[in-house]
Design goal:
- The structure holds two protein chains of two kinds.
- Chain A is mainly alpha-helical.
- Chain A is built from 15 helices and two strands.
- Chain A has a two-stranded antiparallel ribbon with strand order 1-2.
- Chain B contains five helices and six strands; from the N terminus they run ααββαααββββ.
- In chain B, helix 1 (13-34) crosses helix 2 (44-56).
- The chains are: A mainly alpha, B alpha+beta.
- At the A-B interface, helix 1, helix 7, helix 9, helix 10 and helix 11 of A face helix 1, strand 1, helix 3 and helix 5 of B.
Chain lengths: 333, 224
């Protein structure tokens, strides 16, 4: 008896899928987390310390449990931490874990540690972040659940572990795709009644708002030129949850969205939003576009950092290629 | 998950089925949570249930970003802050007074400025002003984070560190009309924190000052 359509759909959801985009996301999200926290170094105790803004010193003067009740409950315990040293230790651990995740060292462990610590710091002082930090949590989780440590990873290179077949469980990838779409759904559909967006003034507003705008320019004379960009975004984002799944057109839509994000990053600073979304959109590009450069990088990594190949059982060691560590082994006289 | 059989699949299919059901349920919550609940009366309660369930797991289907006020014909240009410490002998010191709106290109991020701006958005605080000026609803998380800023300037070694009896935080917003490009200044919101309060949560006194008051206006009525 053949499976029904719903069973086939479920099987398809869990079927293996190419993992190149998830590997790229591992590198991108890990690097993003590392750089975003490294940039906070001068303000670590002000933002997260017990005597920092909204820290334990203030919370203890409220009635028990009265301060920060809206914070994510499992992760708010830094609010009750009275040790500055612990904050430094956790901060350093997060940096190390994020870097390890990006580079592919103890990938799942580093990813999990980075995710948990990020959630802790985010709950401690959510005003130190823009919205990207909330979306980064599930995005990171999906990438951690995928076997991304098998490719383009320091650990795989050092141990000489090659996995020529770049496929793995498909459901983390599909969850990430789904979540990217729901992100655009919420952002895009909530704007449909927004008067500023409907009048095409959103980009003018974004570039005028000096809380985010990078450049001190008077955009008023150019507001008509900015309207098309507003209209494109007004249409592209609400339609993204549907169009991204259409073969061929979806890739083009992903590139359009990436271009919008890049343009916004050039002119405005909203934390790491644009980098997060540009990285996540890689899951909608054709597999080859992402896999080819990563395969090339993976080959180089194995060649340069991999263990030397064992000598043949008889005769002198074979002449090695002129590149990489093997060049030190030369044929005998 | 049990020893795999010849096909490589787990010998405990119930675990595999349970895992699949949980993943599919999560995916369904994402899709439902993203649905605009106010536009669809039928799916609305389901959508809100999905959103709340995911929120308890610290997950959001998405975020409504770059939103604006309803019926808005203006855009925000700047949210300006100034913090002044007042000592008992009458000495006043500006503890925080960045150029606002900022001049020149800005490529880095001052995270203290980000936190202060977001925690002190007058739009969230001004509606909470009671008649006597004392902030009510100290359980409100926005009020608590606003209070945290003033208290930090009273107590932090990097700022006031007990040198002042009172810290005054002034915030004012600058807008630009999208109809004619005019700059519009909102009224300054002035909140005074008593730095002598050390045994309980601080409750500042706040008031809306006149935009013409030179002592509190952070930029002239007709802006840059």
């Amino acid at each position: 008896m053949s499976a029904g359509p719903s069973t086939r759909a479920v099987d398809r959801f869990f079927s293996p899928a190419p993992q190149a985009a998830m590997v790229a996301c591992r590198i991108g999200f890990g690097a993003l987390l590392f750089v975003s926290y490294a940039a906070k170094l001068p303000w670590v105790q002000t933002l997260y310390g017990p005597r920092g803004m909204g820290g334990h010193e203030l919370a203890s003067r409220f009635a028990e449990g009265a301060f920060g009740r809206d914070l994510d409950a499992p992760f708010r315990w830094l609010l009750y931490n009275g040790s500055e040293t612990l904050v430094w230790v956790l901060y350093a651990a997060l940096l190390v874990a994020a870097l390890g995740f990006a580079l592919g060292v103890r990938t799942r462990t580093c990813g999990a540690v980075a995710l948990v610590l990020h959630a802790l710091f985010l709950a401690r002082n959510q005003y130190a972040y823009y919205g990207w930090a909330w979306m980064a949590k599930p995005f990171l989780l999906y990438v951690i659940l995928a076997p991304t440590g098998r490719w383009v990873s320091l650990e795989a290179w050092r141990r000489g572990r090659r996995a020529p077949d770049w496929t793995g469980p498909g459901w983390p990838l599909r969850l990430l795709r789904l979540h990217v779409c729901t992100m655009y759904a919420v952002a895009g559909w909530n704007r449909l009644d927004d008067p500023v967006w409907r009048r095409g003034e959103a980009f003018f507003g974004a570039l005028t708002d000096r809380r985010f705008a990078r450049f001190d320019l008077d955009w008023w004379p150019f507001r008509a030129w900015l309207e098309p960009f507003s209209h494109v975004a007004f249409v592209a984002e609400p339609l993204a949850p549907f169009v991204l799944w259409v073969p061929g057109l979806g890739a083009a839509w992903a590139i359009l969205l990436m271009a919008l994000h890049l343009g916004l990053e050039i002119f405005a600073n909203v934390g790491w939003w644009q980098w997060l979304m540009m990285t996540a959109l890689l899951v909608f590009l054709p597999v080859g576009w992402v896999e080819r450069p990563l395969r090339a990088l993976d080959r180089r990594g194995h060649r340069w950092l991999g263990p030397p190949e064992p000598s043949p059982p008889d005769g002198p060691p074979a002449e090695r290629s002129s590149s990489g560590r093997g060049a030190r082994i030369r044929a005998g006289p | 998950m049990g020893e795999p059989d010849a096909t490589g699949r787990s010998a405990r299919p119930w675990l595999r089925r349970t895992g699949r059901m949980l993943v599919l349920a999560y995916a369904a919550l994402l899709v439902l949570g993203a649905w605009p609940s106010e536009r669809t009366p039928v799916l609305g309660p389901l959508s809100r249930f999905a959103w709340d369930t995911l929120a308890r797991m610290s997950v959001r289907p998405g975020m409504a970003i770059f939103q604006h006020e309803s019926e808005s014909n203006r855009v925000l240009v700047a949210h300006c802050l100034r913090v002044v410490g007042h000592a008992s002998e009458g000495r006043e010191t500006r503890l925080w007074s960045p150029t606002c709106p900022p001049r020149g290109p800005v490529f880095g991020t001052d995270y203290q400025d980000v936190v202060m701006q977001r925690a002190t958005r007058a739009a969230r605080i001004a509606p909470l002003l009671p008649e006597d000026g004392r902030l009510p609803r100290m359980m409100d998380p926005h009020v608590q984070r606003f209070v945290a800023i003033g208290d930090w300037f009273c107590r932090s070694p990097e700022a006031g560190a007990g040198r002042y009896d009172r810290v005054e935080l002034t915030q004012q917003q600058l807008w630009r009309s999208t109809e004619d490009g005019r700059y519009l200044a909102g009224p300054p919101l002035v909140c005074a924190f008593d730095c002598g309060v050390t045994h309980r949560a601080p409750r500042p006194r706040c008031r809306l000052a006149s935009g013409d008051d030179p002592a509190h206006a952070l930029f002239p009525p007709v802006a840059p």
